[in-house]
Specification:
Elements (H helix, E strand, L loop, with lengths): L2 H6 L1 E6 L4 H13 L4 E5 L7 H7 L3 H5 L2 E3 L2 H4 L5 E5 L9 E4 H12 L4 E5 L8 H4 L4 E4 L11 H17 L15 H17 L9 H14 L3 H15 L8
Parallel strand pairs: 1-2, 1-6, 2-3, 4-6, 4-7, 5-7
Helix pairs in contact: 2-3, 2-8, 6-8, 9-11
């Protein structure tokens, strides 16, 4: 199964959302991470212009969203349900951080349906809703202030799911620049040594120790070919500055 099918097997379920803006922001958070299955359990306002506005270019997720009357209906065909909650409970299922929970979502979502369930903005998941989940995932946060906006919590969870599925691969191929060859570097070092000797920075009769340090600095930089050319241009003008006309 390819990664896109795994993304299609993982849904986000919002329970009794009060503010339509959070629904729109959730859609945007989901789409940026590649998730597209949005379920809404008894939302107070939906559809709503504010949801559409905050979804920006993810309005298609709102159009395809499934609205249900109960959580049981939203997760009926799921084989694994993860409740995302920051509340400490006296009795609960296994609790883990969202990174660990995302690994479960990835592993099970490769073949079966997974739900990520979020509670209301004010109080999170109720005990009855949490009871419908196999595990509870929590976002490690500042113990003095653990409150997160609903859409922010969705973003964090969806990000961890994407990292688990893609192993953190970038969504674009990074352009590889041409590194300077050893011959280019040696010519640069020779040029620099000549210039530093000419301006009196190093003693031409005993340059070795200081210049070894300078070489190490540039070695760590992994200079590109164009960068070596740029630096050599600076060296040239350091001893033979251009004469600019005065206007």
């Amino acid at each position: 199964m390819d990664n896109q099918n795994i993304f299609n097997n993982i849904r986000v379920v919002l329970c009794q959302t009060s503010h339509p803006g959070n629904i729109g922001s959730t859609a945007r958070a989901m789409k940026t991470m590649g998730l597209n299955q949005l379920y809404l359990v008894n939302p107070k306002y939906f559809p709503d212009p504010q949801a559409t506005s905050l979804a920006v270019n993810a309005a298609d997720l709102l159009e395809s969203a499934v609205v249900t009357a109960t959580l049981e209906q939203a997760i009926a065909d799921c084989q694994f349900v993860i409740g995302v909650s920051g509340k400490e409970r006296s009795l609960s299922q296994e609790v883990m951080n969202v990174r660990e929970a995302a690994q479960h979502a990835y592993r099970i979502g490769s073949q079966q349906q997974v739900a990520l369930v979020f509670g209301t903005e004010m109080s999170g998941l109720t005990n009855a809703e949490a009871d419908r989940c196999q595990i509870l995932a929590t976002i490690p946060a500042n113990p003095d202030y653990t409150s997160l906006n609903l859409a922010q919590a969705v973003q964090v969870m969806c990000y961890e799911v994407r990292m688990a599925i893609t192993d953190g691969k970038l969504h674009y191929d990074e352009k590889q620049s041409e590194l300077a060859s050893q011959d280019d570097l040696e010519r640069f070092y020779q040029h620099m040594q000549e210039v530093l000797s000419e301006i009196g920075y190093i003693n031409p009769r005993a340059p070795k120790k200081l210049f070894e340090r300078i070489r190490r600095i540039y070695a760590r930089a992994k200079l590109e070919k164009e960068e070596v050319n740029l630096l050599r241009g600076i060296l040239t003008l350091s001893v033979k500055p251009k004469q600019h006309s005065k206007y």
